[in-house]
Structure formats: C-alpha cells, structure tokens
Amino acid sequence: MKLELKDLRVSIEEKEVVKGVNLKVNQGELHVIMGPNGSGKTTLAKTIMGHPQPKVTGGEILVDGKSILGLKPNERARLGLFLEFQSPTEIEGLGLVSFLNTAKGAITGSRPSFKEFMHEIKENAEKLALKEELIGRSLNFGFSGGEKKKAEILQMAVLKPKMAILDEPDSGLDVDAVKIVAENVNALMKMHGMGAILITHYSRIINYMNPDVIHVMKDGLIVKEGGRDLIREVEEKGYNI
Ligand SMILES: Nc1ncnc2c1ncn2[C@@H]1O[C@H](COP(=O)(O)OP(=O)(O)OP(=O)(O)O)[C@@H](O)[C@H]1O
Ligand SMILES: [Mg+2]
Description:
Elements: E1 3-12, E2 15-25, E3 30-34, H1 41-49, E4 55-63, E5 66-67, H2 73-79, E6 81-84, E7 91-95, H3 96-108, H4 114-127, E8 138-139, H5 145-159, E9 163-167, H6 175-192, E10 195-199, H7 203-207, E11 213-218, E12 221-226, H8 228-237
Parallel strand pairs: 3-10, 3-11, 6-9, 9-10
Antiparallel strand pairs: 1-2, 1-4, 4-5, 7-8, 11-12
The protein binds adenosine-5'-triphosphate and magnesium ion.
Residues 12-13, 17, 35, 37-43, 53, 86 line the site of adenosine-5'-triphosphate.
C-alpha cells in the first residue's frame, strides 16, 4: 500500500490544526513523526483513519493513488489502514476477543474458527509478554496504561494491516516493554511488508527500529525531514531547530 497526504489541511472546531502536510509512505517503509505537544500529530493520525471529529478543509489523502476522504473508518480499515490510539478507551462489556473477532471478520470478510483465532491471540499476547488473563477481559477494562498500549499492538498483530499509524506506542511503557513493542512492529513490517507511521517523543523506541525518514511537525506543518541525526538534534536542542 502507498499512503499519500497532499497539502492536507484539517480543522477542529473551526481552528486549523493541520496546515498543509505532505507525506508519502510506501509499503514496508517506516516514517517517524516527532514534534512538540499540540503540534497536530494525533489530529493528523485520526484524520487518516477517518475519525469524525477533525474536518478536512483542503488537500487529499490517497491510498494507492485513490482518494479515501469519502470512506468511513471501517472502510479504511478494510483497505488495510490501522490506528493505534494515543489514549485507548476502556469499553466495559465488549470482550477483547469478541471485539477482535468482529474486526477481523469485517476486514477480511470471513471469520476465523474460534480455536484458531484464540491460538493466534494467545501466541501474539505471549510475544508481547501480555498477561493471558487480560485476553478474557473487556476491551482495555482495568488494564494498566502499559497494558492498554500493548493490547493495541496485539490488535495490530492479529489484524495485520498494510499500513499502521502508531500514536506514541511507547508512552508509559517500561524499558523492556518498549523493546518488545518495537520488535513486534519490526516483525510485522518484515513478514507482511507493513508500512508504518510512528509518532513518538523519544529516541528509545526508534533505536530498535530502522526508520526511513524522520519528520518534525511543528504548529501543523512538517518543518524538517531527515535521518537518525535529526532525532539526536531534537534531543540535544529541543524543537528550536
Ligand atoms: N477535541 C478537540 N477539541 C478542541 N481542540 C482540540 C481537540 N483535539 C485537539 N485539539 C487541539 O488541536 C491541537 C493539536 O492537538 P493534537 O492532539 O493533534 O496534538 P499532538 O501533536 O498529538 O500533541 P501531543 O504530543 O501532546 O500528543 C491542540 O492545540 C489541541 O488542543
Ligand atoms: Mg498526540
């Protein structure tokens, strides 16, 4: 899958938050977006996935050259897009397994057998060092902050998207968990040619990965692009670069 943002402009409640972003992510590529709090990174991520709140006021979002602006979030998921939420919500009464089963069925058009599916979930939970008892719970209900973030990665591993947007997957994770999450994303990229946009504030997770481009987003715009050196520059000088 090739994802392209062309001069994308997005407003939330009449305020322009994304002010003309251009970005091209090919299959198998890893793009990192860093930037100050409130610069529009999460808004950009939600807009790509079709969240109803941000309003696109200009520009285009193209998947393999075709506009997806008219598509609902579930239709975008069917194309192979996936968003890991910065702050996953707890949904009491919706079991993690049944949620994943429905999502997988909606995306692939056929539901896997329960036994096979449970096996896949357990296998991936183990890879993520996610406690097995969490699988039996409602979605994110009573999960710790780090467990919620890992559960999002579990969803990604099971749904196998073509392009994943990961909104601070490392936030609130302990040092071992950061490495585990990075390795799981790497594995999906390698096995399925998944492309990824990784939003983060820290170099730690990127140290375990092979980013193609680092983008710095400031006040709704991508103001700088580069390689690993740019991360070092940001960590040393902050965003006055
Ligand atoms: N639901 C909302 N209502 C009003 N303003 C909003 C809403 N969501 C986002 N904003 C505003 O849009 C701007 C961009 O927010 P966004 O969440 O995209 O930032 P971010 O770059 O992800 O920041 P962070 O690094 O803190 O996660 C902020 O000024 C924020 O206050
Ligand atoms: Mg954010």
